[in-house]
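Lab notebook page, bench 4
Experiment: in silico fold of construct C2
Operator: M.H.
Input chain length: 120 residues
Purpose: comparison with the prior construct
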Amino acid sequence: MLGREWRSVGDLAPNDWRHGNPRFQGEQFAKNLSIADRLSEVAEEKHCTPAQLALAWLLRRHQDVIPIPGTSSIARLEENIRAADVFLNEQDLNRIEHALPKGSAAGERYAPAMMKVVNG
């Protein structure tokens, strides 16, 4: 997860697709890392991982959304399941939304070629 494992683009594997992702470039990476750090602080206070915090926020804030998290291992699956046990009150939800207001991620979501595919 951004902010925990990767503190610079150099921390990514040489063939990692994020090397070409605008959100992992220069100033955008630094801004997004700062956001991730603020969310990690909230997660630490709630005794959960940032991924669990994100899933708990989705589950609590959006009753009509069913998250489909990436699950690369049994450990990640178990981590994701435990997100249902993370309690977020209204103050927590507002704090998360203040730390990461809609549209605050820096940089385009994908490189231009991929944006053409996504927006097809």
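Observations: The two ends are 28 Å apart (CA to CA). The chain has five helices and no strands.
Next step: discuss at group meeting.
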